[in-house]
Prior knowledge:
The structure is a single chain. This protein has 2 domains: 17-145 and 304-348, D-Maltodextrin-Binding Protein, domain 2, CATH 3.40.190.10; 149-302 and 387-433, D-Maltodextrin-Binding Protein, domain 2, CATH 3.40.190. It is globular. The longest helix has 19 residues, at 415-433. The chain has helices at residues 5-16, 18-26, 48-61, 77-86, 98-106, 127-132, 156-161, 174-185, 201-208, 225-239, 252-260, 274-280, 282-286, 317-327, 330-340, 347-359, 365-380, 394-409, 415-433, and strands spanning 36-41, 67-72, 93-96, 134-135, 139-140, 143-149, 151-155, 266-269, 288-291, 301-309, 343-344, 384-385. The chain is an alpha/beta fold. It contains 19 helices and 12 strands. Strand 1, helix 3 and strand 2 form a beta-alpha-beta unit. Helix 15 (330-340) crosses helix 16 (347-359). Strands 1, 2, 3, 6, 10, 11 and 12 form a 7-stranded mixed sheet that branches. The chain has a 3-stranded antiparallel sheet with strand order 8-7-9. Strands 4-5 form a two-stranded antiparallel sheet.
Amino acid sequence: xxxxxxxxxxxxxxxxxxSTLLAWGCRPAARTEGPLQLWTxxxxxxxxxxxxxxxxxxxxxxxxxxxRWTDLPWGSVERKLLAxxxxxxxxxxxxxxxxxxxxxxxxGGLADLTPLLPxxxxxxxxxxxxxxxxxxxxxxxxxxxxxxxxxxLVNRALLAEAGLKQPPQRWEEVPAFARRIRRATGRYGLFVxxxxxxxxxxxxxxxxxxxxxxxxxxxxxxxxxxGRRAFAFWTDLYREGLLPREVVSQGxxxxxxxxQSGELAVLASGAEFLRSIQTNAPGIAARTEPFPPLTGVDGxxxxxxxTLAVPRQSARQREAAALALFLTNATNQARFARxxxxxxxxxxxxxxxxxxxxxxxPTTPQQAQIRQARLLSAQTLESAxxxxxxxxxxxxxxxxxxxxxxxxxxxxxxxxxxVREAALQWNRYAEARWP
Length: 435
């Protein structure tokens, strides 16, 4: 769809003018009365009952701080939030992922919550995810909310056909596994996309392989021996025909399609997705078993995090921070984890969720399968962290790396040339942004 010229001009100004955002972000909004504005991502209408119940509890405890809840689709939050900051109508609390939170914080758009939080607030949350919501320069820019971890959902029938008892546990085991699956079954072992604006799984795999992506000055650190090995790893897998051809042109949705049609031995996905497989492909679901996710040699898994942040523009930052803490307290997180089948960032809530899962007595194979996957997810959190740093521009870094890796996979350049070109392109960008 082509946007009208005026709208394109406004959006371009919002997206590119860091100084404009900084100027407006530092200036308090005019609104000091009325309800606190809370924006969340993709929760309505499925979780309307939960959110309305939690807000009702808050308002009973804080009658002078009512809340107006607005839920936004995934694809529109960045545009709407930037537009709201520019118009000085930003919400008081907003649900963000770490990369966008870091990007906004780098432009002065988010409040440092450190002076707004009670002493010891950090001890309520898992240390790794609390740290992931902290920026080295901007401070504590968000409060952790809910989490997901990928598991390896495995088609046992394809493994049996290839004479295998379990999927690979480490990335170094993948080539031999993929080769065996391909030769014995004609199917593929796994699907990891290199579409620039899709999943970050491949970037995370590089970190698990020992690659340092950026140095302290935000310059490329991946032009290293470890980086060259990682680029060669993915290039060789593709050129040998061990990855579906579509990994260079289609995203994670294609992986789901291939798995549900029986063409993929391993799908990297969350426990919550098992319900969809049970509905859409019951035959495949019956042959599916959850296993721990692929990791590097140190066994560290990746966790995906959602947070609650307070725009610096809010004139009611202390109340907003209190609301963020209320939404993420142990009671509310445990309830949301049950309803949404995600994991809580609260230590107490996680213990509660694990105890409930261990006490469950499923009555159907489908329920038992989901319970097994959710328990495995909770256990995986013990060795999981946010692997890709939530640095400003991290999506640009992913785009650059994936684009050059595509060229190497397609035989246009060597994998070493892809590393060098990606580092050169990133450093040009970084030098302009962080002189």
